[in-house]
Amino acid sequence: MSTATLTPFKLGPASGASAALAAPGAATHQAVHIDLGDRSYPILVGPALLDNPATFAQCPQAAQALIVTNTTVSPMYAQCLLQAISPLYKQVHVLALPDGEAYKDGATLNLIYDQLLGSTADRKTVLYALGGGVVGDMTGFAAACYMRGVPFVQVPTTLLAQVDSSVGGKTAINHPLGKNMIGAFYQPQLVVCDLDTLNTLPVRELSAGLAEIIKYGPIADMAFLDWIETNLPALLARDPQALATAVRRSCEIKAWVVGQDEKEGGIRAILNYGHTFGHAIEAGLGYGEWLHGEGVGCGMVMASHLSQRMGWVDEAFVQRITRLVKAAGLPTVGPDLGAERYLALMRGDKKSEGGDIKFVLIGNGPLSAGGSGPGTATTQSAPEALVREVLAACTQSAA
Amino acid sequence: MSTATLTPFKLGPASGASAALAAPGAATHQAVHIDLGDRSYPILVGPALLDNPATFAQCPQAAQALIVTNTTVSPMYAQCLLQAISPLYKQVHVLALPDGEAYKDGATLNLIYDQLLGSTADRKTVLYALGGGVVGDMTGFAAACYMRGVPFVQVPTTLLAQVDSSVGGKTAINHPLGKNMIGAFYQPQLVVCDLDTLNTLPVRELSAGLAEIIKYGPIADMAFLDWIETNLPALLARDPQALATAVRRSCEIKAWVVGQDEKEGGIRAILNYGHTFGHAIEAGLGYGEWLHGEGVGCGMVMASHLSQRMGWVDEAFVQRITRLVKAAGLPTVGPDLGAERYLALMRGDKKSEGGDIKFVLIGNGPLSAGGSGPGTATTQSAPEALVREVLAACTQSAA
User: Fold this and answer.
1) Distance, CA of A395 to CA of B209 (rounded, Å)
2) Share of residues in chain B with pLDDT > 70 (%)
3) Contacts of A4 (CB under 8 A, 6+ apart)
4) N or C: which end of chain B has fewer CB within 10 A?
5) Quick count: other Cβ atoms within 10 Å of Cβ A165?
6) pLDDT in tens, B1-55
């Protein structure tokens, strides 16, 4: 663990230095800074950012830019973004990919390369990822690899992408045998979280985003978890102030973790709380059946059960998380894949080593030995018997 | 340009600090050091390295390793390498890809991912690239992307890969619209140039490797060019001492350039002398028709002609390069693709910006204005009329 300290949770705008990074003339915006040396960049959070040229004034200029989006988001926002960035480029192209996790694959990635090479895009070309996590992950990976690296900007339009996937430089595509298995650590130049885009988000995707917001409480900030519980109705009602606070605080926590461990050598893995079980559910059902956030929501319940069986958290915490995940509109019981399939899928998880599955457990050791309980998290393997107990208790086979 | 100084060319083993990096108990080896901070690594050059466990003693240990090779090299060397590295891993798999530049594509790259995921390879898994430039580029790119990065080791078995492509961290696959368009800068842990493997190299590939060796003279070291001219018969006869000197000096020059500019923001582009024309030939004929080194050989002749028409070198230099390329067994006249096709392909070159083709010219300006002439190189655009003159003079349409 690092000695860096997370600033305490507070309401209202972000404080001090980071606030100074807000786009010129954008008084209502907040900014969170990702501190990674010469790969540092700001995350702008606020309304009416996407269609404002000032938002992008610091982006690199070039002969061409390419906006990568999907067929759902394109009709809503592609023209606004194109207008906003057009002063920077001679040509701006738009590529709308098919929508959904099922398309986060090599074949769809190639559509981006085909577009770039078809328009003779050079190595200064800037890619803009306009959409959710799938668009962001694929565009970022394409930017990492096109001519061995071109600049890119994240413009996430889903809650999940704003609070998690667009921040921190993880990019990837899926492989039939595992999620996000082929990818790169590659940082954007800028992340623009326009809160207005959340008004057009389907309710199911709003809930999926809440899963990643809830995640930040148990792993790093129980005061934030308290706030989420209190403000869940406001978040579900898309109250602008509540969403602004949730997105900003989530990005602050993610920035704090990523700033310590860009390439997931250690602490960064705690951001995968709920993801070991969740990825297994997603892959086991086939990508796109459950949303990523739904897998994470259910996975957090399962990982909390495992933490309890390890003696690291108490029953009350498990009930609390289960209640909150359910109230957010997310599943709390896993599908009936069978324990062997779950185990096989989890052995293929990126955190595994030599077939040993690593879980993100809440706490830092047994409560009986002075463990910290919720508010910290630890990546650790677990006895297979306990994992089987959790699968038996938390999946539909148990019902 | 950097202020770093290239050590002067000399015969015999590498000097000083780098020699201390040779594998334990390997008195006849030389070592060249690539200095890139925490991504630094040694290049070992010598006979009998590939089957010696001591060569790999410092490589990272893990549960698994994967040797990626091709169907031509595998029967000759895969078992030797497997034996040498087996003390470090519980399991070592071998994957033999189809042989040839035509297979340096996304579909073949996927075979590596399928193998890794099929054997539940974790993120500590070490990849070994055993073969020529195609195997090295694809294995390196797979290592860069598998689970967002696993360690890899280059074991080049062709002269071209030993003196150029295995060193410096450029990895890539081809796209139908351009060579090496999809890739990453990703450094290996170690490069092992076993000179014994050159004994089994087809003569055409030996010549292709000589193209990249010749390249280093005009861009950086005219004393080395003198030596190559004198020792060309010995190199063609595969004299072990001559090959050892050529490989070691080529790696020294490459290390000097890459150490100044890992990601080709500037000076590194001079390593592409002959490559703008050469890549156009390769892509225009279809990958695999000409070997990469053949394209580079002919491309150096063409780039020298262009340098002369710019007034940067004299006629005698153009004749000297043409004579040496020819004597090395390489083509000096380009295929008849038509000038428009050449120009279109070169506009797609990675060095191009906004449609402006960049060439690596020999010298640093017109001789009449005090230009340095051969021994330095500069990346620069050229008047299209001069490029067309070169194409008219140096391709079969002119014959």
Assistant:
1) 59
2) 94
3) A256, A259, A260
4) C
5) 28
6) 344 688 888 876 544 334 433 444 444 789 999 999 999 999 999 999 999 999 9
| CATH, range B16-201 | 3.40.50.1970
pLDDT at B26: 46
Reported ipTM: 0.91
- Nearest chain A residue (CA) to B349: A122
Asked if B120's CB is within 8 angstroms of A353's CB, the reply is no
Contacts of B354 in chain A (CB under 8 A): 62-63, 90, 122, 124
The vertex-B59 CA angle with B54 and B64, nearest 5°, equals 110
The residues of B carrying an active-site annotation are 148, 170, 212, 254, 264, 268, 272, 275, 279, 292
Whole-model pTM? 0.92
pLDDT digits 0-9 by tens, B221-238: 999 999 999 999 999 999
Q: Which amino acid is at A77?
A: Y
Q: How far apart are CA A89 and CA A60, in angstroms?
A: 9
3-state SS, residue B133: helix
Amino acid at B217: G
Average pLDDT over residues B297-319: 98
- Identify the three-state secondary structure at position B41: strand
In DSSP notation, B144-164 reads: HHBTT---EEEEE-SHHIIII
Answer whether B378's CB lies under 8 Å from B361's CB.
Answer: yes
* Per-domain boundaries in chain A: 16-205, 273-398
Query: What's the CATH number of domain B260-398, 1.20.950.20, 1.10.510.10, 1.10.10.410, 1.20.1090.10?
Result: 1.20.1090.10
Which among B148, B184, B355 is the nearest to A145, CB-wise? B184
Of B113, B149, B182, nearest to A185 by CB-CB distance is B149
- As a whole number of angstroms, the distance between CA B323 and CA B329 comes to 10
Strand partners, B190: B153
> B338-371, pLDDT tens digit by residue?
999 999 999 988 888 888 999 999 999 999 999 9
Supply the pLDDT for residue A15.
Answer: 44
Q: How far apart are the first and last CA of chain B?
A: 39
Round the average pLDDT of chain B to a whole number and report it.
93
Mark yes or no for CB contact A120/B350 under 8 Å. Answer: no
As given in the structure block, the two tokens for residue B104 are: 């340096």
> Considering A104, A268, A320, A358, which one is annotated as catalytic?
A268
The predicted structure's pLDDT at residue A23: 45
Superfamily, domain A273-398: Dehydroquinate synthase-like - alpha domain (1.20.1090.10)
Q: Touching check for B61 and chain A: CB below 8 Å?
A: no
A352·B122 Cβ contact <8 A: yes
Q: Do residue A117 and residue B90 have CB atoms under 8 angstroms apart?
A: no
Distance CA B354, CA B381 (A): 12
- Both tokens of A152, joined, read 């890119």
Do residue A348 and residue B120 have CB atoms under 8 angstroms apart?
A: yes
**What is the structure's pLDDT at A3?**
45
Residue stretches of chain A with pLDDT short of 50: 1-3, 14-27
